[in-house]
Amino acid sequence: MHAVTGVVLAGGAGRRFGGPKALARAADGTPWLARAVRALAGGGVADVVVALGARADDARALVPRGARVVHAADWERGVSATLRAALAAAGGSVLVIPVDTPDLPAAAVARILAAAEGPDALVQATYGGRPGHPVLIGSAHVAPLAAQLAGDRGARSYLASHGVREIPCDDLFSGEDIDTPRP
């Protein structure tokens, strides 16, 4: 398997959530950022980049030691800006997860990594047939993807138009991302 950098997208303001999800914590007090980094590392990713935006200075303190931090200065333009900053910092193939999937298990990361076949790989987890995360973007796709990113849209249209390989992961996780605070 070729080298893959794990990416945690955590740049948004979290308007529906009531604040930046990069600052969120699980019921046990564990920062979502720490859970995300732990899932990536536990799934076999050695290098992790955390892309921050809103309240980056506050969020930086929650990033586990060993993970690299990149600040998307133009984060207000949407997820495309945060993803573009992360892709530039990673410098090659990436496995992307958003911070708002705090229950994502390391096993899902490992499954997507195992399905990757070199720099041309495009692999996405699915849950009940719906696209989700993690998403692996091989290095051959990074520059073309970055060039077409705009607004508050991620890689979905690029993946669909470039033959993403879908890997079912619903036996591992619901695929749920959290957009509003949990009671």
Q: What does this 3D model show about the protein?
A:
The protein has 183 residues and is α/β, with parallel strands linked by helices. The chain has a single domain, classed as Spore Coat Polysaccharide Biosynthesis Protein SpsA, Chain A (Alpha-Beta Complex). 30% of the residues lie in helices and 21% in strands. It has six helices and seven strands; from the N terminus they run E-H-E-H-E-H-E-H-E-E-H-H-E. Strands 3-2-1-4-6-5-7 form a seven-stranded mixed β-sheet, with helices on both faces. It starts with a strand and ends in a 15-residue tail after the last strand. The mean pLDDT is 91.
Q: Which features would summarize this protein structure in a list?
A:
alpha/beta, 183 residues
Helix/strand-derived class? alpha/beta
Q: Any idea what the shape is?
A: globular
CA(first)-CA(last) distance:
41 Å
- Tell me the number of strands: 7
Task: Let me know the CATH homologous superfamily.
Answer: Spore Coat Polysaccharide Biosynthesis Protein SpsA, Chain A
Provide a count of the helices. Answer: 6
Query: Which strand-content bin applies to the residues?
Result: 15-25%
Question: Briefly, what is this?
Answer:
With 183 residues, the chain is α/β, with parallel strands linked by helices. The chain is 30% helix and 21% strand.
